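To the structural biology subgroup,

Please find below the input and predicted structure for F-box domain-containing protein, which we are adding to the shared reference set this quarter. The sequence is reproduced verbatim from the submission form. If anyone notices a discrepancy with their own records, reply to this email rather than editing the shared folder directly, so we keep one authoritative version.
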Amino acid sequence: MPSPGLPLPELWDVIVGFVSDRADLKSAALVCRVFTSPAQRSLFENIYFDSVMVEPTPDIAVIEAKAARLAETLRTSPHLLPYIHILLICVFPGGKACYETLAGIPWSQLNHLRIFCTPSPEAWVDLQTLVALPSLRFLEMYSTEECFVDVLPHCSSSIEKITLKASRNPNQHALSPSSASQDPIQSPLLVLPVSLPYPRPKIRELRIGFPHPIPEYMGNMFDFSALETIGWGGCAGPHILVEFLRKYGATVQHIELTAGIDGDQWAAFDLSSYLPSVKLISSPYNSISSRLNTMLSRMSSQHRLQRLVLGANRDVSRHEDVKTASDFEEILLSDRFPQLEGVEFVMDGYGWTREYTRYTYPTQRSLVQAHRDLFPRLFEKDLLSVWIGQVKVG
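Predicted structure (tokenized):
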């Protein structure tokens, strides 16, 4: 029973949740019993194993020892297991013992698994164990297609969201700059194993990046009949997505484009043909452009589009921007999009800098005013908003 005069335990969870520094959380866990559980919950919610942290000479033994310590801690303090919701593994080939140790932990509430490097093939069996966890809801894998084909058929049917990015190099770190600039290649034909998950995971959100058309085996491994969101983070054009959207795009309501909308292929892309039900197009890395205008103008009349999210631009005073903006407004305010509810311009759309306060108030105001001046008709119709990260500033 909580001490008289102290907030309820649920409030302590919220209060301690605002503490981000791990040293402070460790100190808070020792203050009193009331603080212990909330602090431990924050400390253990997100567990990561990253050999990149010990570059330039990754010491796999350090990572394997960390995994062994975690397993021993959870064995002696099993009450901590339900606190762990996210597990990130980025261990270069050679860390078999790390994967084996993690696969042997009896995870009970792990719902988000992130694999950011391709392990050695002998460790794939351990990945099969991890992706089969019944508590898993969200899977991210940045790996080679050979690893995908071996591991993904073992996915838990509880998975609803999946992100897959194919890499040619098993030693390529998923977040390194060079991983985003690889030349498109044709991968060899991969044979799908006979053992498929049953029932197949029914995927609601899919984010993918492949250097070639989406492999046929994706449709055999997963059930896309209720797909609501698709994100494309590849460097190539929309032709990579065409066949996939032709089969599974009918139910998609949100398309997220994290790569640049450039090249004539985007301008010629008839989005509404493949995504007839899309209500939200988000592309915070892209501002207005003539190619975007062409793509929007090709969408069918009376389309269901309700929201459009684009990147904000500090410098929007150039003549070509003004002309492009006028055309942009003309397209959106025509009878092509009668259900349009808003156009959002976002600075730091993917939260690389989430603290919007780093933008001074005058900077925020000038950003808002620049977009109001550039899109006066959208502003007049109350369809325009400007955001910094997740905070609306105008």
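Summary notes: The two ends are 45 Å apart (CA to CA). Confidence is low (pLDDT under 50) at residues 170-195, 349-357.

Regards,
Lab coordination
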